[in-house]
Design brief:
With 612 residues, the chain is of the alpha+beta class. Helices cover 44% and strands 20% of the residues. The chain is built from 19 helices and 20 strands.
């Protein structure tokens, strides 16, 4: 339904008294910019509220209302459909005046596979409930990894891939350190392993009492059979389980709570949100979010957050919400009704006695997050001040971007160059780049640096920095300066060098600026913190890239030396056996099962590894 806005407000009569979604446009042209998308149980009442004589709208929303020329109405079957449609439209169309909550992360789950001997692992992505069982999602990777570590200690489930499991001839390291029962080599039968899987599932569901009862029965049976060592091992499991239970913030397992606890506070046009996840009475992790609040309306921001977050991650049916008491804000009842209709999740603005301790912890952590954010903002200010000082020393107006380069290799092998970036007040890791260098570089750092810089200065698709910072003394500085002078960017980039001083102590570092100007740390500590931070980050990033290249080389180098084994066959072998070690341990018959590997090639691969 397309409605033209008029000054006499007669257009309001065209709006129905039903649930649906409305869209505000700034022109009668259907291709014009979309201003706002909203939903309502009663479209007439909601749209009318924007055009009333007296409104309490923020200046930003008032400006939006003054631009509305056309309204599009979509009627939905119910309020749940209206909320879901609005959410989808905001994500796809990105209206100018809607508050956008961006959270593109996939949250980790625990997966127990549908296998004769199921494995347990961390999983992200779409779930297939018919093929596997999933638990979560968890707020962060630490929480899910911690849960799996506990399950391995208690129930010793396997974590290896199916291809590795199918091709093992002896137990792995996890069995040796008593974290796996080694079903891959028949050390545990199907029935016993399945019972451990069932106990792990009970653990993930919070059924501690059932696990304790089962383990106690097993312990007593082993003791009666005079198997005291086995009984002692089960006793240790019960002790570990009891200790885990005591460590939980919410340990009333007769009535286990599955809920999210959210505390929110507004500060300087931002809303800080801290979320704690409880699954079956277990504290499973926490997460925080910072969302811009352009209208100083924490209620609207929280509604946007709750709607977006829980439509994507429905892992609970209950949310306890506490908003900053100073604002006296409550969520709109119409929104809560629509949200529950769409998700079956209840949002309760209530501080319960049972959750008193966890609310207190959430408040403390939320304040720490706010304090850290303030400190980070101050750090940005310090970096900008340092960049301004460097611009002054170089005789240029401003510095928005600095790039710092470094080289890493091991005895001349797998040489890698890195480029890290300072931009707009922060060292921005999303702008980092790596450069693989040719083998001819060997251990010649200066040659490698020159190749990398030549490549960088020819890149026309990257922003131009005002400064390139290099790690090294006068030789490296002169090389960089000459490369810039002979490039097309000679009038846009300045060279700066930082080098280690006496005893390689950072306080004795020196910086070369404008040929003859050499500064020490005490001359300007703030400037040195910026340049040293860039230098150290470039060094770290270069080493990380070099190590990845080394690992890749170690993985495929041996296979590359085998005649008739090209890239496709190498990939098939590594995928089938779960890695180079599995290929090396495979028999001729097992090698022939890999796609593209015939009897002769299988024998050749086997002979290569076993004749070394």
């Amino acid at each position: 339904m397309d409605i033209r806005v008029s000054e006499d407000k007669e257009f309001l009569k065209q709006i129905p008294n039903v649930s649906g979604v409305y869209r505000f446009y700034a022109s009668s042209d259907k291709n014009d910019e979309l201003l706002y998308v909203g939903k309502a149980i009663n479209l007439f009442n909601r749209v009318k509220s924007y055009f009333g004589k007296t409104t309490s709208q923020s200046p930003r929303i008032s400006l939006m209302i003054a631009q509305i020329v056309r309204i599009e109405i979509t009627v939905t079957d119910n309020e749940a459909s209206a909320l879901i449609l609005e959410n989808n439209l905001i994500k796809s169309l990105k209206p100018k005046y809607n508050i956008i909550f961006r959270d593109d992360k996939s949250y980790p789950l625990i997966r127990i596979s549908n296998h004769t001997f199921p494995k347990i692992d961390v999983y992200r992505g779409k779930t297939n409930q018919k093929a596997n069982q999933y638990f979560g999602p968890y707020p962060n990777s630490y929480a899910v990894t911690n849960a799996i570590n506990i399950i391995q200690k208690l129930f010793k489930l396997r974590t290896c891939t199916d291809s590795v499991f199918a091709n093992r001839s002896r137990p792995c390291m996890l069995h040796q350190i008593k974290l796996c029962t080694a079903p891959c080599v028949g050390y545990v039968d199907n029935e016993e392993y399945k019972s451990q899987v069932n106990l792990a599932i009970c653990f993930l569901k919070g059924s501690y009492a059932q696990i304790t009862n089962d383990l106690t029965k097993q312990m007593n049976d082993k003791a009666k059979q005079m198997e005291f060592e086995a009984a002692a091992a089960i006793r240790d499991k019960i002790t570990l389980l009891n200790n885990i239970s005591l460590d939980q913030v919410i340990n009333n397992h007769n009535q286990p709570i599955t809920a999210d606890v959210i505390v929110a506070k507004s500060y300087l046009n931002q809303v800080f949100i801290y979320l704690i996840s409880l699954q079956n009475g277990i504290y499973s992790g926490d997460k925080h979010f910072i969302i811009n609040d352009p209208d100083s309306n924490i209620r609207v921001v929280l509604e946007v957050f709750i709607q977006n977050y829980y439509l994507e991650h429905q892992h609970t049916r209950l949310v306890y919400l506490q908003i900053d008491e100073k604002t006296h804000a409550n969520l709109d009842q119409e929104f809560l009704q629509m949200f529950y209709a769409a998700t079956k999740i209840r949002v309760i603005s209530l501080r319960t006695i049972v959750l008193k301790k966890i609310f207190k912890m959430a408040e403390i952590n939320l304040q720490r997050i706010i304090n850290n954010n303030i400190a980070n903002n101050n750090s940005v200010s310090e970096l900008k001040t340092a960049a301004a000082k460097l611009a002054s020393l170089l005789g240029i107006d401003t510095i928005d971007r600095i790039e710092c380069v470094d080289i890493s290799h091991h005895q001349g092998i797998n040489a890698t160059a890195s480029c890290v970036v300072y931009q707009d007040g922060k060292i921005n890791n999303s702008l980092y780049r790596r450069y693989n260098l040719p083998d001819s570089v060997g251990g010649d750092d200066l040659a490698g640096m020159k190749i990398m810089l030549e490549r960088r200065l020819k890149s026309v698709d990257l922003p131009v920095p005002q400064v390139i910072l290099i790690d090294g003394g006068i030789t490296q500085y002169e090389m960089l300066k000459n490369l810039i002078r002979t490039s097309a960017l000679c009038d846009k980039i300045r060279a700066v060098s930082i080098f280690k001083g006496e005893k390689r102590n950072p306080q004795y570092d020196r910086v070369i600026i404008n040929d003859q100007l050499i500064l020490g740390y005490r001359d300007d500590p703030g400037l040195f913190r910026l340049l040293q931070g860039l230098r150290d980050e470039a060094h770290r990033f270069a080493i990380t890239g070099h190590r990845k290249a080394q690992i890749k080389t170690m993985t495929i180098s041996k296979l590359e030396n085998i005649p008739n084994v090209g890239a496709t066959k190498r990939k098939s072998l590594l995928t089938h056996f779960g890695g180079l070690k599995g290929v090396m341990q495979a028999s001729v018959e097992q090698l022939q099962k890999v796609s593209g590997i015939g009897p002769n090639l299988a024998l050749q691969i086997f002979t290569y590894f076993h004749n070394e």
